[in-house]
């Protein structure tokens, strides 16, 4: 049964507000079940919510699936407010954990706008103690509040806001938690023992000694905070080769942040064979149907125009899904009447290479499922791929694993430290091949958006095990090979809607999709919305945009005008439309297309447009 507090008369002249607070506290002591709704706080009360007005971005808050951002309009007070966008599989929950006193009464309140918006608390430690309030529809700012008592052993509770699955974005501002304050003690001591591990071309591993009473650590790069972690080690990625850096670390708890540690210098390496393999500053990459024919017809190697800088031979396929034994069978005469002989094919490859072009074997494709479940399959992969490269004198390898080739096992949640055999064995195999052929080896990858950018929302099987285990499954491979990777050209086609860094879904058919998808690669993103687990940005010279060459080549074809809009936005910050990128990247490497054959069928429209946009580069 609800209890309704009697109406409080306004204080008479000369009646001190402090006395009201004392009386309110006394009432709570005598009647613990009574809810006090007066706006007059008790004398020892304080607002314990951190950054409740979102004036310092999302500092102190964690939003699921990267759903939250701060905006300058609409706001209730100050200059910023929270905007969080639910999706079909995420309710845009933004939360923070606060230290509280046991067996004490607190009031959580805040202002919200939108439909189906919730404000609540968990972890109170009392039967039926967790509480929330919500509004079905708030066209303007509406105050929500809930009062609760902490349990006898409760020291921390979690505050949250969220919307509802698939609904529009909601806003929140001026969130407060009023109740007995807690002496936070002293900030932790300054961390000691900061040191580097084995430094790579684009990454520096760091470790330091643990600090008593620290709950988190922050890493500073050149005086700028770049990462916050709970452990005593991390890897700073997305760096440039052969570049000097300086790092410091701090420790923090509820009382604050320590001073920074002594600085540790680090110089990134040349990559031990990494880099671009000798690609031109602007490269056009295309797949040549070398082992099959379709409606586009067969194109001889010697007939591939000079526009193409990287020619991917499609495809090398396994003898069975799990064998790891890759074979490259050229298109038979019965299927491709105009196919050249092996001798002519090899001679044409040498001629292309003499002209500065790169010719690679592409493994996989739509029908070539490859699962390296065992070390035996891994070793067979290395041996058989090496045999193909050596026989045809190729410049490198392209990984075009699709379908069910890559997926993550249950419990494999950290892309930086994968445990799934098909992932670990593929990484080992590619590193072995890269080491075998050295500096000039060209390594490219052509994953689908589902395996890369979808990782912003979902990763593997998810917290409850109900997700598609292929979500984001390429991320650990890309990350482990980022020092060796020449080019990543994600297939921005045959894709469903994908959420971008603006927390909006983007669909194929225009420049916007290519801009949003490429921006994610060049900016980096939290994996599955976890801001403590960020996939670092790739260097712009490692990235090309994957597009279909014609309407026949795949879903998602765009006109030359839309191709140029995407390039303008990403390299010049012009023609960006409604999407705003997180940077401008003149060094973006170029474009990839499926396929050379389909471009020939379309009178070379795709490659001619590339030549016009990047003349004589």
Automatic annotation (TrEMBL):
InterPro entries named in the record: CenC_carb-bd, Chitinase_II/V-like_cat, FN3_dom, FN3_sf, Galactose-bd-like_sf, GH, Glyco_hydro18_cat, Glyco_hydro_18_chit_AS
Gene source species: Streptomyces uncialis
Domain Fibronectin type-III: from-to ranges: 190-271
Family: Belongs to the glycosyl hydrolase 18 family. Chitinase class II subfamily.
Pfam families referenced in this protein's UniProt entry, alphabetically: CBM_4_9, fn3, Glyco_hydro_18
GO terms for MF: chitin binding; endochitinase activity
SUPFAM superfamilies: (Trans)glycosidases, Fibronectin type III, Galactose-binding domain-like
Name this polypeptide is given: chitinase
GO annotation terms (biological process): polysaccharide catabolic process
Domain of life: Bacteria
Enzyme Commission no: 3.2.1.14
Keywords: Carbohydrate metabolism, Glycosidase, Hydrolase, Polysaccharide degradation, Signal
UniProt keyword Signal, yes or no: yes
GH18 domain ranges (all copies): 282-617
Keyword Lipoprotein among UniProt keywords: no
Region (Disordered): 256-277
Signal sequence region: 1-43
